[in-house]
Amino acid sequence: MDFQIDSEWHLRPIKGDTGKTYIGYRDEDRVFIKRNTSPLLAALSREGIAPKLVWIKRTGNGDTLTAQEWLDGRILEPDEIMQRNDVIDVLYHLHHSDSLKGMLKKVGGRQVSPQQMLADFEAKLPAALQKNTFIQLVHTYLKKNIPSFPKKNYTVVHGDVNHRNWLVCRNYLYLVDWDSVMFADPALDIGTILASYVPLSSWSKWLVRYGMRPTDTNMERVYWYALMSLLLEISRFYQRKELQRMNQMILQLKRVFAGS
């Protein structure tokens, strides 16, 4: 169902699991609209990491609607994540941008430690998965091996860099969906990429391409976040009743945990 927000723009909801995204249209113009997304979006647009920001409007009920240019692109296929150097370029830019760091601090961006991630996972883990002996094994490992990384070195982190959030348009790559943006160890984003898209035998090579030395300490950090990201995906798929995808993630978790 379409609805109007002012005398110019009409909105049509986009099917999805958030209920927060819309197509906005005015005559022949179209924009992508998201409700109550990160206030960092304007800065991300200026840096070329996210699609161009067109306008921001506030509604009568206090919501903020953010419109970005409509791009006729496509999301990356899973096997492209490892192959494309611009994935690494975008992540490196994000993690090393002082202006983005300053802007996120200005808008009160949250800071998330591995302890907080683990506690949040534990609080939301469905009872059925709590009884899974393999998930218990990985969970125990994570509790005993929480990585150490100075909070003063935390960077801007996307927080959900799965392939569905990479949009390529005219061969230019954007990172989209910034609802999970935070200050954290950049190994969080890196571990998420490596866990699902890069064979364990190629992790060191990928890290070198990114610009991180594959020392034992760095590898342990990345490994911890890789396991954490897979556990979070397993929990999400279970809650969405996408059991086939959940089982695929459990198999991937077993491969990563076994080091194969």
Automatic annotation (TrEMBL):
Residues 40-223 form the Aminoglycoside phosphotransferase domain. GO terms for molecular function: kinase activity. Coiled coil: none annotated. Keywords: Kinase, Transferase. This is Protein kinase.
